[in-house]
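Sample intake sheet
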Amino acid sequence: MKFKGVIPILVTPFNNDESVDVNSIHTMIQLMKNIEVDAVTILGVLGEANRLTDDERKLVISSAVEAADQLPIIVGTSSAGTRTVINHNEIANKLGATAVMVTPHAEPTPSEERIFNHFDTVLRAASVPVILQDHPASTGVHMSDNLIFRMLDELTGFAGIKLESVPTAPKLRSLKSRYKDQIHILTGLGALYGAYDLEAGSDGFNTGFAFPEVLIALLREAKINNWSSVFDIYQRFLPLIVYEQHPGVAIRKELLKLRGAITNARVRSPGAQGTEDIKNTLKHIIKNILQGTNLTKPVKL
């Protein structure tokens, strides 16, 4: 698993009755393939994984793997229990996942030793590469640089790091200065700090921003040190990047619906649905940035 480039995190599409929309999984992944992303991630926070039954998880994974064909699939398998993570990993592996992504879990009394032991046990049992996700906003866990250093130095099986611990740039520089290209690090947070993360050495993006082709263009220009172009692209799309950062998944689902990637923008209860205000604001932002563009096709930048 080469954890670098642009790897979008996908939503889980639902029908009006909140059943999993398998057809939209295929349509959404086809759009990602047309955009030429490097892989996709499913069943993360954006994928409403905590609202799915075990059988629905299996359905989403098997449908995504079938649709992806040769496109690598990363499956989010985080859970409050170590044994549950291991079980999720085994299922993901059996269903054809390329890698899994795991976060630490918050405990009443914080303990870096327990986090280390959690990942040690998970990695020893894993038959598929593991991505370490550092996202305090969703986990409530702040992993220190030294804890991550220790895990990378002493444990075997990490295929990369998804870094979303704000401020991201200093932590990126700290990790890159120590490990260089020994470990690939992608950033997320909807590309909110995208240009600055690339300056700090990010290997790309692993996020749910609904226009991955923008992130591909940012990475392309960063690789040739064309920083004026990086910031031009970044500033052009910043209004949309910022608006996407509202809590919940409704905005991204509305965007993916506008792109023809999913049929319905339904968020599973009790999640908030997209409002008319949200829909109108998105149309206004997109008109200003991408006037006349066919959103159902890859955007050329």
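Comment: The mean pLDDT is 96. Residues 5-238 form a domain with the TIM Barrel fold (CATH 3.20.20.70).
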